[in-house]
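Re: the pair you flagged

First of the two:
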Amino acid sequence: MGVVRCYVLVFNMAAPIDLELKKAFAELQSKMIDTQQKAKLADLQIDQLTRMKKHANLTHAEIKTLPDNTRMYEGVGRMFILQCKEDVNTQLTYKQKTADEKIKELEQKKTYLERTVKDAEDNIREMLMSRRAQ
């Protein structure tokens, strides 16, 4: 996960407080906290999908070694359903494929979140520079 910077603005009581700047910092802080939470959630989901993909891959590898006429059962709730080897392989391949797609989507979402925070930071910096120039 990328580095998220927090800025603390200390206002001198003698100096006039720029309410617009204070509001922008408050918005940035809330946006950064929200983004951090969303990025952590995306990381957790990526980890879970990676584990699921690995489990499906290992199961698929073990099933390959079995003869075609082996009776296989799929757990559904509290019961098991008899499945042919081909159906089990198809389901495992589908799980791996969907996990890959979801992982890619989550990584794109995470990079987007990090980019929006960076843009907000740049806007605040720009605002600070313009205030100092005045």
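Second of the two:
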Amino acid sequence: MGAEHLIINREASQAALILGLQPAALIDHVARVDWSLLDQIPGERGGSIPVAIEELEHILSEVKTHILDEPSPIKTIAGGSVTNTIRGLSVGFGVPCGLIGAYGDDQQGQLFVSNMQFSGVDVSRLRMKRGPTGQCVCLVDASGNRTMRPCLSNAVKIQADELIAEDVKGSKWLVLRFGMFNFEVIQAAIRIAKQEGLSVSMDLASFEMVRNFRTPLLQLLESGDVDLCFANEDEAAELVR
């Protein structure tokens, strides 16, 4: 699958102190909903499990009848754990940040790029590819707990052999999210980051991810290449048991 770099100002990209690895760009559809909708969708509340595009579209159609907020029930923005971290560092703290990854040649892909540019994030390391951009439904209950259902099965993403030292050169930190769907990309990114002297931060993604892939996760953590690990209480409990 062919890829094109998004050409911005390369001087700006070299100044990015913190880089986020978002292998597949993701658009979040965020809505505050009542408990009854969460009871209807597969999987545990508060977790994150992948769904097909048909299931994602079905959930979005059901949101309208279970919404807690009016008149704007659904907020559609660039999403993903790493993207949100990078955006927060850029907007909230003024830290020069950039993203590494790929987005599709569709409306969602353009929305992802424009959202991040608006937040002051360097997007020159993003590759545009032919195909769809990933999407995720993020359902927030009255207590603020999030239940996420991502659809990434046919989304474009950056491949391990497409990563180069130039992507990280001059930066200080690489931020990434654990996931078996992107495991080869994660391993390649960590290897390049370490060769270029960067520190690596990793988010454990979800308690389901830790539970289902605990062995490779432990091997990655015990390698000594991850300098900082973020986990919520449920993820930490699954990890240490």
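The two ends are 41 Å apart (CA to CA).

-B.
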